[in-house]
Amino acid sequence: MARTPIDIVIPDLSGKRVVLTGGSDGMGLVIAARLAAAGAELILPVRNPRKGDAAIATIRESAPEATVSLRHLELSSLDSVAALGRTLLDEGDPIHIFIGNAGIMNPPERQTTADGFELQFETNHLGHAALIAHLMPLLREGRARVTLQISIAANQGGVNWDDPNWERSYDSMGAYSQSKIAYGLFGLELNRRSAEAGWGITANLSHPGVAPTNLLAARPEIGRAEPVPARRLISVLSRMGIMGTVATAALPALMAATSPGDPGGTFYGPSGIRGLGGRPAEQPLYSRLRSPEDASRMWELTQQLTNVPLPAV
């Protein structure tokens, strides 16, 4: 018997300006296409302009009238993040939806960025947090819904508070989990501070479950010449309906970013077994994300490391 397709209804987004990182391929491209089809003006910050151009062509196959354009961004460079912030501030248009979806996972060896941070920590968390800080005036003007894409990996490990760059010892998966926990804590603190100070921003978290996405593919730019070994098994389980597909993995972030009336501070993910796949729905926060003290501490640490100020409450 054929399975019932899993999908959600996205409201009309005409007149909404959306900034989406990681939207040029895979799950991010699905998110981008759905937002554009709903009428949003879509900004895709990309590292590779050729991939970005190909993404726009794909989006316009299903949404010929889509308003979509590229900007340059390298999340592992705070200079690049600041440059994008200046570009969008100069354009002056309010941002109504921000989805921080880009990320990398499990380089085979510890790598550092030009800024001196562990690669996953800066790409997955610090770069996004700095971009949000730079864009705060536009996010506030647009009374933005901010969605931070974390991971099922945020339900394991923890923050290496004494050595966040993993200089004394290194575990690739541990560093990945930390980056997603840090990102989630930051998002929850953003929502709390906005509510307290009246910034008008709401922030949610989402996770895609597990699916055969490009996160697990060969990534020569981080030293991974072959796909992650588990990707083949994940593909089989995806076809069996136990894990998600690229299309269903996009849905929690779309729900987090567009559900009408959401108060913020909500966590969306697949509702199937162990959150691996299934229909998207609100989920209980992972234990690593429940401490208000940790969220406030991450907010302060992020400002300290990036040297990008965030507004005070």
What would your notes on this structure say?
With 313 residues, this protein is α/β, with parallel strands linked by helices. It has a single domain, classed as Rossmann fold, CATH 3.40.50.720. Helices cover 40% and strands 12% of the residues. The chain has ten helices and eight strands. Strands 3-2-1-4-5-6-7-8 form an eight-stranded mixed beta sheet, with helices on both faces. Helix 1 links the parallel strand 1 and strand 2. Helix 4 crosses helix 10. The protein starts with 16 loop residues before the first strand and ends in a 7-residue tail after the last helix. 50% of the residues are buried. The mean pLDDT is 93.
Keywords, separated by commas or semicolons:
single chain, 313 residues, alpha/beta, Rossmann fold, 8-stranded mixed sheet
Instruction: Count up the domains.
Output: 1
Number of helices: 10
* CATH class (first level) name: Alpha Beta
* Strand order in the sheet with the most strands: 3-2-1-4-5-6-7-8
What value does the Rg take, in angstroms?
A: 18 Å
Order of helices and strands: EHEHEHEHHEHEHHHEEH
CATH homology group = NAD(P)-binding Rossmann-like Domain
Q: Which fold name is given in CATH as the topology?
A: Rossmann fold
Helix content: 25-40%
Biggest sheet details: 8 strands, mixed
